[in-house]
């Protein structure tokens, strides 16, 4: 009974101050802060950029041009583009603040750009559509790879004068890059290196119950779920009530992450609520359906519209493949993965790496490293980020456009 009273008092406090989002003092001060509020509260030097894709989506990105306290100068820096996973958002690359990959890259001398993929809560505008229109959500990762990544590469070049960039993508952000590299080969000469974290393309050895449940959901298979996975204040309140450090349900909240691969030792209980109040942040169901199609067909293919529509769209009955061998040896590609990733097994990652001759496979040196540890793990700095920064610096260039 005491627990129930505590939770209702917490809810009352949140609802009472919900317009200003004043949270109880025992919660992490970043709780409930959305991207720009978070940046300003920590005195980050940042810029917000918007690019309109060729098909009309307004794609936002945060630019971190220099470290806090760094004196502005005209010296050009190597640029790097970070892209988040499915239904996630840029802030994941920034928490915890001092050990985040974004902060480390900025302090290592990079001009850091973090893209909010279309459908994310920060990229919900379109030239003539709104999120209430079903057509707004009629995209998969293919359109992001074909339109949005090239559009941002061009924008970064126009703003900075730097011809080349480095790339880091987590989960879907990694899948995006591999698709982009095969369908927009003209841009590869402008990539210094790509670091791909846990890309889920093949998952014959997946252990996630959630993944299997989604895969077997007939409503998704038949495209009957057309909506999105948008961030909402209700989800945020639920996370705050049940996932705070004093909640009796905290362990159950953390157990919700076990579907990615159990690794409670790497969950920072103080920062856990910060992550949970910002994710999921929105994407199309069609994107997830595309991934499921690839998993079931066991081939890295374009979206499958089924026989006769495929014939109309592609001129053939089966969707074309993303030809990974076509990018072999053209740029340094590093694929990092954890052996405890429940969304794909070691064998799946090894297969992917083998299909890109010259790609570097990197096993994160922690036996319980899972799919979300790339952005959640307390020790991500020493387990992964130090390596990523070192490798990115090794290949980075500053080339005039």
From TrEMBL:
The active site is at 171 (nucleophile), 341 (charge relay system), 371 (charge relay system). One of its GO terms (molecular function) is hydrolase activity, acting on ester bonds. InterPro entries: AB_hydrolase_1 (IPR000073), AB_hydrolase_fold (IPR029058), Lipase_euk (IPR025483). Residues 79-191 form the AB hydrolase-1 domain. Pfam families: Abhydrolase_1. Residues 1-20 form the signal peptide. GO terms for biological process: lipid catabolic process. Keywords: Glycoprotein, Hydrolase, Lipid degradation, Lipid metabolism, Signal. Belongs to the AB hydrolase superfamily. Lipase family. This is Lipase. It comes from Ceutorhynchus assimilis.
């Amino acid at each position: 009974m005491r627990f129930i009273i505590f939770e209702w008092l917490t809810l009352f406090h949140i609802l009472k101050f919900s317009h200003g989002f004043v949270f109880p003092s025992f919660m992490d001060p970043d709780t409930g802060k959305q991207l720009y509020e978070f940046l300003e509260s920590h005195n980050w030097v940042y810029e917000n950029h918007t690019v309109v894709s060729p098909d009309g989506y307004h794609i936002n990105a945060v630019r971190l041009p220099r470290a806090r306290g760094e004196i502005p100068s005209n010296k050009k820096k190597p640029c790097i583009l970070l892209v988040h996973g499915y239904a996630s958002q840029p802030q994941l690359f920034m928490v915890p603040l001092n050990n985040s990959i974004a902060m480390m890259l900025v302090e290592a001398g990079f001009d850091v750009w973090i893209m909010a993929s279309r459908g994310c809560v920060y990229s919900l505008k379109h030239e003539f559509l709104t999120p209430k229109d079903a057509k707004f959500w009629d995209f998969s990762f293919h359109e992001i790879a074909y339109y949005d990544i090239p559009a941002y590469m061009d924008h970064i070049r126009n703003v900075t004068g730097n011809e080349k960039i480095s790339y880091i993508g987590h989960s879907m952000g990694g899948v995006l890059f591999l698709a982009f590299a095969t369908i927009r080969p003209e841009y590869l000469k402008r990539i210094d290196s790509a670091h791909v974290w846990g890309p889920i393309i093949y998952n014959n050895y997946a252990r996630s119950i959630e993944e299997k449940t989604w895969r077997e959901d007939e409503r998704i298979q038949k495209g009957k779920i057309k909506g999105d996975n948008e961030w909402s204040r209700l989800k945020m309140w639920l996370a705050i009530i049940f996932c705070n450090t004093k909640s009796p349900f905290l362990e159950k909240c953390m157990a919700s992450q076990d579907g990615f691969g159990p690794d409670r030792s790497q969950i920072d209980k103080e920062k856990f609520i910060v992550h949970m109040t910002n994710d999921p942040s929105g994407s199309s169901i069609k994107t997830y359906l595309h991934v499921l199609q690839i998993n079931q067909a066991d081939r890295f293919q374009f979206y499958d519209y089924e026989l006769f529509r495929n014939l109309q769209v592609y001129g053939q009955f089966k969707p074309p493949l993303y030809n990974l061998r076509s990018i072999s040896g053209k740029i340094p590609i590093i694929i990092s993965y954890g052996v405890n990733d429940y969304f794909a097994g070691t064998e799946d990652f090894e297969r992917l790496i083998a299909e890109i001759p010259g790609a570097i496979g990197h096993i994160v040196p922690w036996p319980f490293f899972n799919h979300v540890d790339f952005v959640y793990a307390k020790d991500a700095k020493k387990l992964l980020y130090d390596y990523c920064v070192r490798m990115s610096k090794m290949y980075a260039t500053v080339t005039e456009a």
